[in-house]
């Protein structure tokens, strides 16, 4: 009985140690993913140097390879991390809007603010780099782009049914134009804070057939979204 109790106590000690190690591992993974996202946004996949990613995150290259087997593995994980961050900072606010047209304008505004971050251009950079290539990273980028289009298409369709978005081109065509307007305006206005946010919303509204002046003058995203 005493032996059993000793093992239980020792097991708790080891569990506590493992918990601390797991926390450290999670923190290092987060730092490496953010560093990789910054590097991919700036340099793309082909020019990403893993040693630099590790150094910028404050870790060694060995620490990086302890968590990611190669550049592709790191890139796919970084993309997933960026998508999750986008969902938290943009998508969660879109879901709170009851009116589909208002939700689309929130998406435009929040996305503009999100794109001020140095991690935000991962998808755009990689989509251009892997265009017309059959590559795991390229396929992941296209899947993420398709999911965004589907979100926009569902909102457009719901807005037309509710009467808040006027009839016009086919839903998917309009969704493509909506996403294109957001991405193009964000790129053109990079660094033009605070004008980027209302102008992206105005461009998005124009594509939807709404009054761009109303979209541009509506309340802006919360300051907490800026980084």
Descriptive report:
There is one protein chain. The chain has 227 residues and is mainly alpha-helical. It has one domain: Tetracycline Repressor, domain 2 (Orthogonal Bundle), CATH 1.10.357. Helices cover 75% and strands 0% of the residues. It is built from 10 helices and no strands. It has helices spanning 2-43, 50-57, 61-67, 71-96, 100-114, 122-129, 136-162, 171-188, 196-208, 212-217. The longest helix has 42 residues, at 2-43. The chain starts with a helix and ends in a 10-residue tail after the last helix. Residues 1-13 and 221-227 have low confidence and may be disordered.
In short:
Helix content is 75%, strand content 0%. By secondary structure, it is mainly α. Keywords: DNA-binding, Transcription, Transcription regulation.
* Stretches with pLDDT under 50, minimum 5 residues: 1-13, 221-227
Q: In one word, what is the shape?
A: elongated
Question: Mind summarizing the main beta sheet?
Answer: none
CATH superfamily: Tetracycline Repressor, domain 2
Radius of gyration: 22 Å
Structural class: mainly alpha
Integer tally of domains: 1
Q: Name the helicity range.
A: over 70%
CATH hierarchy class name: Mainly Alpha
Number of strands: 0
Enter the CATH topology name: Tetracycline Repressor, domain 2
Order of helices and strands: HHHHHHHHHH
- The N- to C-terminal Cα distance equals 57 Å
Describe the secondary structure blueprint for this structure:
Blueprint: H1 2-43, H2 50-57, H3 61-67, H4 71-96, H5 100-114, H6 122-129, H7 136-162, H8 171-188, H9 196-208, H10 212-217
Helix pairs in contact: 1-2, 1-4, 1-6, 4-5, 4-7, 5-7, 5-9, 6-7, 7-8, 8-9
